[in-house]
Amino acid sequence: MKKLDRKAKMPATVFTYTFGICAALLLGLGMCLSMKVIGDGMVLMILGIVLGIIGIVGVSVNYPIYKRISEKGKKKYAFEITQLAKEIIDN
């Protein structure tokens, strides 16, 4: 039963970690550019602000995306999990 639960949640977990890491790196890059730690000039600062905002949005929507993908996985394997639970209860 634990294997089926892990199998249902694995795609959501992998996507969430990957997307979250990329969004956090994008946010960090945007912060570095906007504070002129990397590069110099007004164009790079504006680019940094835009990248930072995109990173913030990515980090903010990461958990709702995880919940949606996780629910789809649970629905996909719900029948198998309930059948296995019935077998365990019957024995």
Structure commentary:
The chain has 91 residues and is mainly alpha-helical. It has one domain (2-90). The chain contains two helices and no strands. The chain has helices at residues 2-34, 42-90. Helix 1 runs antiparallel to helix 2 (42-90). The longest helix has 49 residues, at 42-90. The chain is rod-shaped and about 70 Å long. The chain starts with a helix and ends with a helix.
Attribute tags:
2 helices
Question: Quick gist of this model?
Answer:
The chain is mainly alpha-helical and 91 residues long.
Protein topology:
Elements (H helix, E strand, L loop, with lengths): L1 H33 L7 H49 L1
Helix pairs in contact: 1-2
Overall number of domains: 1
N/C terminus separation: 15 Å
- Low-pLDDT parts are none
Main beta sheet strand tally, sense and closure: none
**Oligomeric state of the chains present here:** single chain
* Count of individual beta strands: 0
Q: What form results from the Cα inertia axes?
A: rod-shaped
Radius of gyration from the CA trace? Answer: 20 Å
List the total number of helices: 2
Structural class: mainly alpha
Average of pLDDT: 90
Helix content: over 70%
Percentage of β-strand residues: under 5%
| N to C succession of SSEs | HH
